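Hi all, posting the design record for the shared folder.

TITLE: backbone redesign
STEP: 1 of 1
STRUCTURE INPUT:
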C-alpha cells in the first residue's frame, strides 16, 4: 500500500487571534465590577435610591457577562486545534458576545420594571450617601473602561486594515460586548448621580426613577445593536459592510471563467472561509484559482471546485 505525503495539501484550522491580554483585562474588570456591585446593592437598599439599587443589580448581571466573555476566550484558546471544531473556535467569542447582549437586554427590562414601580411608589432617598456610592461606582466604571479600551485599541493595530479596506470585521465582538457592558454601567452611574443631585436640591424625587427608565432605553438599544452584529456571524451571513463577494468575482471571473456558486462566511475575527464552484472552457487545477485570491489574507479557508463547461 502506497503512502502519500498529505502535508502540502493540509493546513491548520486555528483561526483564533491572540486575545490573552483581552482575557486578562476582562477578568480584572470582572473583579472590580463584582466589588462595586455588592457596594451599590447594599447602599441602594439602605439609602432608598432606586437609581443606585438598579445600578447595583445592573452591575451584577455585568459580572455574569464578563465571566462569559472570559470563559469564551479560554475555551476558544484551549480548543483552537481541536479537530472536532471543523472551522476552528473563532465563533466562541461571538457566541459569548451574543449571550452578553441577551443579558444586557434583561438588564434593561429589569431597570425599566423597577423604575416604573418606584415611580408609582416613591420612598425617601438618602441623597448624600447615595451620591457618594454612585460616584465611587463611576470611578470604577472609568477604570474598567480604560482597561478594555486600551486593549481594544491595541488589537486594532494587529491587523492589516490598510490592505483590505473592503472588510470591516476587525472587531473582537467578545471584547466589544464587555466594553459595552462597562459603558452601560458608566452611563447608568452618570444618570444616577445626575438624578440624585437634582433631586437633592429641587426635591424632585420622581426624577430618580425617570432617569432609570431613560437609562433602560439606552441600554436596550445597545443590546439590540450587539445582537444584530453577532447574529450575522452566528448565522453564517456575509456582513453587509463587506464587498468580499465582489472582490472574489473580480479576481476569478476572467477570460471565460464564471462562478456558478459562492458561499462566504466568517470563522473568526476578520477571517473568512469560502466555497467556490467555477465553470470554464479551459479548466485549471484549483491551486491556480487560489493563487488569484492570495492577496486577500482574510480568506483563511478556501475550497475551489472546477467544472468544465458543457461537461456533466
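Okay, here is what came back for every position:
SEQUENCE:
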Amino acid at each position: 500500500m502506497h503512502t502519500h505525503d498529505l502535508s502540502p495539501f493540509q493546513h491548520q484550522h486555528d483561526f483564533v487571534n491572540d486575545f490573552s491580554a483581552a482575557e486578562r483585562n476582562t477578568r480584572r474588570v470582572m473583579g472590580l465590577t463584582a466589588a462595586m456591585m455588592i457596594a451599590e446593592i447594599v447602599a441602594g437598599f439602605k439609602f432608598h435610591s432606586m437609581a443606585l439599587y438598579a445600578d447595583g443589580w445592573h452591575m451584577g448581571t455585568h459580572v455574569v457577562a464578563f465571566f462569559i466573555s472570559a470563559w469564551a476566550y479560554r475555551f476558544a484558546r484551549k480548543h483552537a486545534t481541536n479537530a472536532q471544531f471543523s472551522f476552528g473556535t473563532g465563533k466562541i467569542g461571538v457566541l459569548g458576545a451574543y449571550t452578553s447582549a441577551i443579558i444586557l437586554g434583561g438588564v434593561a427590562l429589569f431597570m425599566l420594571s423597577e423604575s416604573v414601580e418606584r415611580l408609582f411608589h416613591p420612598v425617601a432617598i438618602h441623597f448624600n450617601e447615595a451620591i457618594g456610592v454612585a460616584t465611587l461606582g463611576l470611578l470604577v466604571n472609568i477604570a474598567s473602561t480604560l482597561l478594555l479600551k486600551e486593549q481594544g485599541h491595541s488589537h486594532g493595530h494587529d491587523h492589516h486594515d490598510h490592505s483590505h479596506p473592503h472588510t470591516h470585521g476587525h472587531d473582537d465582538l467578545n471584547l466589544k460586548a464587555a466594553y459595552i457592558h462597562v459603558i452601560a454601567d458608566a452611563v447608568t452611574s452618570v444618570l444616577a448621580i445626575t438624578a440624585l443631585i437634582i433631586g437633592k436640591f429641587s426635591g424632585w424625587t420622581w426624577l430618580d426613577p425617570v432617569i432609570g427608565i431613560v437609562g433602560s432605553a439606552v441600554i436596550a438599544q445597545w443590546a439590540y445593536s450587539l445582537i444584530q452584529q453577532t447574529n450575522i456571524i452566528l448565522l453564517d451571513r456575509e456582513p453587509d459592510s463587506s464587498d468580499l463577494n465582489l472582490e472574489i468575482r473580480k479576481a476569478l471571473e476572467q477570460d471565460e471563467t464564471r462562478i456558478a456558486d459562492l458561499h462566504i462566511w466568517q470563522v473568526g475575527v476578520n477571517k473568512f472561509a469560502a466555497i467556490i464552484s467555477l465553470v470554464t472552457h479551459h479548466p485549471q487545477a484549483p491551486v491556480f484559482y487560489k493563487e488569484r485570491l492570495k492577496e486577500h489574507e482574510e480568506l483563511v479557508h478556501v475550497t475551489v471546485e472546477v467544472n468544465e463547461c458543457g461537461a456533466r
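COMMENT: Confidence is low (pLDDT under 50) at residues 153-170.
Let me know if anyone wants the other runs.
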